[in-house]
Each structure stands twice: as structure tokens, then as C-alpha cells.
Amino acid sequence: MKTFKLISIQLLQGENATAIPILDGLIINKEDDHHNWLIELYMDHPDYSFFENALNNGQKLLVHAVISKKENDPAPFEVIVHSISKFTDTISVLLQGSLKRNRKDYAEMLLDHLLESGYEGKALSERFKELMHSKQQLFLEKKSQ
């Protein structure tokens, strides 16, 4: 197994990408035959009910995680909520799932998305730089399915 620092994570639902505000997190590549990963999110209570509902319903979630450094490209995962531990002021949410490998890297997919959206010239360059810096992940949902 290999463990990495989780820098940030976004939940993708339909056309919406929502940053999950974490206090801390880690991600573990279990390196098993099923290519399973574990993601632990340590966060405040406000998101408890969402994750509790997902756990009770066995709902699959699509998340994009930035691992180790904020400059790294987001990695897409399909996960389920495995467990939730509630503490006095915080919760720990354990997600389990698999990495959804993409054939293209983030920069290539972003450029394709911007071109398909009609950007060109200086506007294309500026928007590309802006999104490369922010690592917005919404457009990845359509490309990774």
C-alpha cells in the first residue's frame, strides 16, 4: 500500500462541481488486484447528512482528488462511502473506490473542452491559464464517463 496527502477534493453531481471543504485528508492506493483506493476526509460536521445519505443508499460518487501537491492534476475516482466516524466537532469520512483512468491528461482535456466551447486566440490562452491554475474539474465528468 502507498499513502499520499490529499490536497483537495471535489464532488461532481450533474453539471455541478462542489469543493468539499476538508481540514485534512489522505489517500491510499491499496495496490490490490481490484485497484481499490481509500480516501479519508477529515472535516467539519455540516456535510455529515450528505455522506450519511450516500452511505445508507450505497450511492456511487464521482470525485476528483488533487494528491500530494496543489499543482498536480486532479485524479478522477468513482467511490462509495465506506464509513463515517463522528467526533465532537468533526467527522471522518472513508471513501472506497477505484481510479477512473483517462486516456488524456488534464491539460489536453481542458484544451479540448475550451476549443469545443468556442474559445480562441487570446481568450483561449487566458482561460486556459486561469483554469490550469485553479484546476477546475467540472468538464472532466463528461470526458471520464
Order of helices and strands: EEEEHEEEHHH
- What is the end-to-end distance? 27 Å
Please give the largest β-sheet. Answer: 6 strands, antiparallel, barrel
In spatial order, strands of the major sheet run 1-3-4-7-6-5
What does the overall shape look like?
Answer: globular
Provide the low-confidence segments as ranges: 141-145
Share of helix, binned? 25-40%
Strand content: 35-45%
What integer is the average pLDDT?
86
* Total count of helical runs of at least 4 residues: 4
Number of strands: 7
Explain the overall architecture.
The chain has 145 residues and is of the alpha+beta class. It contains 4 helices and 7 strands. A 6-stranded antiparallel β-barrel has the order 1-3-4-7-6-5. A hairpin with a 3-residue loop joins strand 6 and strand 7. The chain starts with a strand and ends with a helix. Residues 141-145 have low confidence and may be disordered.
Task: Summarize it.
The chain is α+β, with helices and mostly antiparallel strands.
Write the layout of secondary structure elements.
Layout: E1 2-13, E2 16-19, E3 24-29, E4 36-44, H1 48-57, E5 61-67, E6 75-86, E7 90-99, H2 106-116, H3 121-134, H4 140-144
Antiparallel strand pairs: 1-2, 1-3, 1-5, 3-4, 4-7, 5-6, 6-7
Helix pairs in contact: 2-3
Essential attributes:
145 residues, alpha+beta, disordered C terminus
